[in-house]
Amino acid sequence: MSHNSFGHLFRFTTWGESHGPALGCVIDGCPAGLPLTEADIQPFLDARKPGGSRHVTQRREDDRVRILSGVFEDDRTDGQVTTGAPISLMIENTDQRSKDYSDIRDRWRPGHADYTYDAKYGVRDYRGGGRSSARETAARVAAGAVARKIIGEGVTIRGALVQVGPRSIDRARWSWDETGRNDFFCPDAATAALWDEDMDLVRKAGSSVGAMIEVVASGVPAGWGAPVYGKLDQDLASAMMSINAVKGVEIGAGLAAAGMSGEDAADEMELKDGKPAFRTNNNGGVLGGISTGQDLVVRFSVKPTSSIRIERDTLDRDLNPVTVSTKGRHDPCVGIRAVPVGEAMMAIVLADHLLRHRAQKG
Fold first, then answer.
1. Do residues 242 and 234 lie in contact, with contact meaning Cβ atoms separated by under 8 Å?
2. What is the arithmetic mean of pLDDT over 150-161?
3. Pick from 76, 159, 208, 316: CA 20 to 30 A from residue 36's CA?
4. What is the pLDDT of residue 171?
5. Residue 104: is its pLDDT beyond 90?
6. Which of 193, 163, 198 is CA-nearest to residue 181?
């Protein structure tokens, strides 16, 4: 199985399966001399880990990260710093229930990668989906925490859930502080309360719903990215599309730009406090593949969780018509826990482009 790595100068490779003994990643290209301990990584994993509320899977994983390589106690700084060598991170799986999947080992679940894995490899790990499981995203979040150390505190990366099923937030009530006060990373308290009711109904019905996540990076200076095949927005789109269950990505105005006029879509410029400034941000902070200095704004849609209790028609590996109902513990809306994953992928792309910018510009 190839293509388990992402990035150029800052590059990480994930490994492990949903029901294996552990999963993790190896990070290559992290500069030396950055302070890094498990405590720098753990808060981001805690935000993503399962079992955090009744609206997500009740699989109980502590998601405790261990740094296995790439750091050293530096007497000059009186702390642990990166050495420039590959950083290996490991997260143990402690609450697998593989028996929950015994009934579907020979049945292709609609909406899952069961059929495509069999078609490509002739073998698949049916226990939670193996490599196709969203459990793999824990390693991405860990890598994203290291990426944030490279970017530094001058850049702020924040994610929010802006739609669950058919119900969207009211942007007039947007508050970043509110995202830490509810179970949905929702910036709108009133909508979060409605989602609470919506999700109870979805879960009791044994169904699932999709979601839309918005990730914003503030403080990115103008000039990151490259024209043609190294575009910043190109890599952001690729990063978000690589997340499990993502079916669409927007930058700035996104798909709505198709219905705009040229004069409305153009982000007019002016001089403000002696510096170039933009009056709007329809381009999401990127022009010609290069950052403008405005907020980078990315949205991505996540399809409804395919693991549902409601029976669906399908085929088994012998091509017999059968039905399937997925047991076990699953997210009725996988988009909720995708918010920290989207933040991590934003951080990873920005760390990579920061190093690439330094390499080009000095």
1. no
2. 97
3. 159
4. 97
5. no
6. 193
Can you point out the beta strands (E) in 3-149? Answer: 5-7, 11-16, 22-28, 65-69, 71-74, 79-82, 87-92
Closest to 352 in 3D by CA, of 221, 224, 218: 224
DSSP 216-279: EEE-PPTT-B-STTS-HHHHHHHHHHTSTTEEEEEETTGGGGGGS-HHHHS--EEEETTEEEES
- The DSSP secondary structure of 172-203, one letter per residue, reads GG--GGGGGSSTT--S-HHHHHHHHHHHHHHH
| Strand, coil or helix: 22 | strand
Compute the distance between CA of residue 7 and CA of residue 230 in angstroms, rounded to an integer: 11
Gap between the terminal Cα atoms of the chain: 37
For residue 51, pLDDT over 60 is answered with no
pTM of the model: 0.93
Q: In this predicted structure, what is the pLDDT of residue 50? A: 64
The β-bridge relationship of strands 71-74 and 79-82 is: antiparallel
Residue 276: predicted pLDDT:
94
User: Which sign does the torsion angle of CA 74, 79, 80, 85 carry?
Assistant: negative
Helix (H) or strand (E) holding 331: none
Amino acid 328: pLDDT: 65
Report which of 30, 9, 26, 55 is spatially closest to residue 339, judged by C-alpha positions: 55
